[in-house]
TrEMBL record:
Taxonomic lineage from the root: Eukaryota, Metazoa, Chordata, Craniata, Vertebrata
Family: Belongs to the peptidase C19 family.
Domain USP per the UniProt entry, residue ranges: 30-287
GO annotation, cellular component aspect: cell-cell junction
Gene Ontology MF term list: cysteine-type deubiquitinase activity
Catalytically driven reaction(s): Thiol-dependent hydrolysis of ester, thioester, amide, peptide and isopeptide bonds formed by the C-terminal Gly of ubiquitin (a 76-residue protein attached to proteins as an intracellular targeting signal)
Protein name in the entry: ubiquitinyl hydrolase 1
Biological processes per GO annotation: protein deubiquitination; response to auditory stimulus; sensory perception of sound
InterPro entries listed in its UniProt record: Papain-like_cys_pep_sf (IPR038765), Peptidase_C19_UCH (IPR001394), Ubiquitin_hydrolase_53/54 (IPR052398), USP (IPR028889)
Length: 287
């Protein structure tokens, strides 16, 4: 694709402009085993993401008090897995503990059962939700503000969606919601890169974030709330300050040919105000 060439150009490359910094994980790297028939790749990738996030890994390590579910306790299984990661001399470890706890925990829902393939992104989100319920079972996950809940404290983005008409000034009622992951289509992302190239825009460090934002709202037009005739883009406003912002890239087809292009050119820094609007509380942070 044309944009890959553009992005590889010295000085014009998104990948090169975003230098990896303090976000590099300090965790020792180890593999996870996936024997024939286990089909645990979805789980292993979710566990690897959690392990590599230093602030999550360290927080989980110091937490002990939780509502234990025994065989179905993902909290215990994850802590055991992380201890093995830390202390084992093996280069690759089995993820059986977490696999069994996940299968047991979701037995009634018939999800994540042993031997069956499942979705890595849904697994990642469900692990976080289960950690929430092990830590603060009494709280509604959507409204969780508990300081002891590392799932929501670290990952939850509290946003609201709203349409604001620049023509007549009308605005829709804000729709608040919480999410662990903001999903963005890789096809839409690549389309936005093509558009950017057509506009011959000068490279800016915040460009990757803006491409994600544009891809996230591509083709999503709403009617003006006062019916003035304008078509509006939805505005998503971030109201909290999550320690970890998770962007999930969605492959629109099982046979997408965009994999190499997307992976090669992922930026390593993300300019948050480029992806979502920030409520005024944050404006000072990004001046
Ligand atoms: Zn437990
Ligand atoms: Zn929580
Ligand atoms: Zn209007």
């Amino acid at each position: 694709m044309a944009w890959v060439k553009f992005l590889r150009k010295p000085g014009g490359s998104l990948g090169r402009a975003y230098q990896p910094g303090s976000t590099l994980s300090l965790a020792p790297t180890k593999g996870l085993l996936n024997e024939p028939g286990q089909n645990s790749c979805f789980l292993n990738s979710a566990v690897q993401v959690l392990w590599q996030l230093d602030i999550f890994r360290r927080s989980l390590r110091v937490l002990t008090g939780h509502v234990c579910q025994g065989e179905a306790c993902i909290f215990c299984a994850l802590k055991t897995m992380f201890a093995q990661f830390q202390h084992s001399r093996e280069k690759a470890l089995p993820s059986d503990n977490v696999r069994h706890a996940l299968a047991e925990s979701f037995r009634d829902a018939q999800r994540f059962q042993l031997g069956l393939m499942d979705d890595a992104a849904e697994c990642f989100e469900n692990i976080l939700e289960r950690i929430h319920f092990h830590l603060v079972p009494s709280r509604d996950a959507d409204m969780c503000t508990s300081r002891s809940c590392i799932a929501h404290q670290k990952f939850a983005m509290t946003l609201y969606e709203q349409c604001v008409c620049r023509s007549c000034g009308a605005s829709s009622d804000p729709l608040p919601f919480t999410e662990f992951v903001r999903y963005i289509s890789t096809t839409a992302l690549c389309n936005e890169v093509e558009r950017m190239l057509e506009r011959h825009e000068r490279f800016r460090p915040e460009m990757f974030a803006e491409l994600l934002q544009a891809a996230n709202t591509a083709g999503d037009y709403r009617k003006c709330p006062s019916n003035c005739g304008q078509k509006l883009k939805i505005r998503r406003v971030l109201m909290n300050c999550p320690e970890i912002v998770t962007i999930g890239l969605v492959w629109d087809s099982e046979h997408s040919d965009l994999t190499e292009d997307v992976v090669r050119n992922l930026a390593t820094h993300l300019y948050l105000p480029g992806v979502v609007y920030l409520c005024s509380f944050f404006s000072l942070l990004f001046l």
